[in-house]
């Protein structure tokens, strides 16, 4: 569509922050900008002052040369591209023939780079992504000083027109997966994209309702590390979370600080997380089914302790455990949504006072409260999947309370089969364990020393599996 100044002015007429400046410098020019999106100093230095010193310009090409003081001067190819530049903070300069020049005068408003609150580390870089897409790309570019670092820019959302960048390393990432991700983003039809989590819903190939299938990180070093393995990063303007694809379940067992610690300590930490997650899901169910159906398995002294503590409880073991789990989930949700100062007091009151009062009143047994607390703590070793694991914990506990150990075994096998069946972007979700890929176990639960990692993961499609260049 042809770029028309009259049509453009009519489109924005009545907007309080719309500014128009007519300039005569041999030819008549009209400079337009949005006051709320542009830096007034940049508009003055890069547009108005250079044009003020021109006396006999003959065409728009001469004007473009005089505006070269700005690092971003370009010709929008069509009307929609001009609107996109304009709404992102560019100043547009029109001549009498409706030729248009876009000059970068964007304002730099936003928080500064700081350590992300969700990914704090004892060792390693402390920089975190912010809500500005330009700053986020700079943080990646600072770590990838190579022309092979490629960026594909898109605009998503009918009204928000959100800038989205697909970043990858040419020669490592599989170009077919890059094209697939770009195609999916281009096909997004929605009013607006306010955060990268909106895009994650469209990038999830199988639209799974359990377990996330798209990775996310707030740390540039983690994003670059994943890109060096063949993954693709998706950055959305206005969001500090950068998406990474493809995604493996084992990534939830890994921490940002793992790669800055000794490999032996990292292996121990990951093993502890793995055991904690399994225990948090299965422990309440095992407690219920052993108490109801298979009490002969419990050591005699422990069985006597449990029976003495729960003999006056008015609820069945299954009902009691489900009540404990629900109460802890309610406390967790309330703690997340309360102000930080109040949240600490709420968690202490809820966990200590409320739990102790319930035991003293004879409504809940002390063993059930202890099992529920241990299970709740274990969930936080995989913080991104806390809600999903909590739901699975309730489901497995209910089945175990109805069917006994057989129900726990069947539920566990069902979950494993479900996870093993999922595959996005040619990547099995449970790799490197299902299917078994021995080479990729070097950085799964156990980790070998970084100098010994000579090959990239085979479970992640890539064009060069050699880490040594």
Walk me through this protein's architecture.
By secondary structure, this protein is of the alpha+beta class. The protein has 3 domains: 5-104, no CATH class; 133-247, no CATH class; 263-421, no CATH class. It is built from 15 helices and 12 strands. The strands form 3 sheets. A 5-stranded antiparallel sheet has the order 1-2-4-5-3, sandwiched between helices. The chain is elongated, with a radius of gyration of 29 Å. It starts with a helix and ends in a 41-residue tail after the last strand. The model has no long low-confidence stretch (mean pLDDT 81).
Compute the number of strand runs: 12
Main sheet record: 5 strands, antiparallel
Mean pLDDT: 81
Give the helix proportion (percent range). 40-55%
How widely separated are the two ends? Answer: 46 Å
Task: Categorize the overall geometry.
Answer: elongated
Count of helical segments? Answer: 15
Q: Output the structural class.
A: alpha+beta
How many separate structural domains? 3
The proportion of strand residues reads 5-15%
The ordered H/E elements are: HEEHHEHEEHEEHHEHEEHHHHHHHEE
What order do the helices and strands come in, and which of them pair?
Elements: H1 5-12, E1 18-24, E2 28-34, H2 40-52, H3 60-66, E3 73-74, H4 79-87, E4 90-94, E5 100-104, H5 133-143, E6 149-156, E7 162-169, H6 175-186, H7 196-203, E8 215-217, H8 220-227, E9 232-236, E10 242-245, H9 263-292, H10 300-310, H11 317-337, H12 340-360, H13 366-379, H14 386-403, H15 405-420, E11 423-424, E12 427-428
Helix pairs in contact: 5-8, 9-13, 9-14, 11-12, 11-13, 11-14, 14-15
